[in-house]
Amino acid sequence: MPPSTAIMGYRRVATAAMTALMAYTWYVGTPRDLFLWHPMCMTIAYCWLMIEGVSVGKAVGEAHSMAARRRFTQSHTIVFTLALIFSTVGVGAIYQNKELHNKPHGTSWHGVTGYIAMLCMLVQSLMGYTLYFSLGKPPMRALVRKTHAAVAIGASIIGCSAMCLGLVSSFAAMKLEQPYRLSIGIFLWLFHVGALAGFC
Asked: Who has the most CB within 10 Å: 96, 110, 152, 172?
């Protein structure tokens, strides 16, 4: 059963507000260097766009008409494309920042889960574009559709995990006190799980 318009509306306002608050928190008082792009872009990608993309993706399968299905599919593709762009910029920023400062890559659970989430995002996006542009034969498309949905769930869960691990980093600890970081982590999980389960 699809979520009500009111519940989706509340969730959209809540995720947008949480994303704006977090992005503002990361921005204020942080040196305007390459690193800043990482938390800003990843917050936008995984706290807002990813949740919205999953929610709209669920609505595609529950659409009652071809016109509605086409509209939801187009919205889903646009939102996930934006998520892909922001996450790519975010990963690129932290990668290049570490290169500039001669620091090793993927040495923390946050880094490892972040790279895995990015890989999942790339794979599911590639499959999504294959479906959107009607590439391949129907039997293969059915398999790609199921795999696309499964990998998207993985990308959402792993990306959410990476975000929560980022909230215990020294950068986040410097910006936010523990109760606020814990609250953000809880709400982030609730929004992701709610979107995946079709509740919001």
From this structure: 152
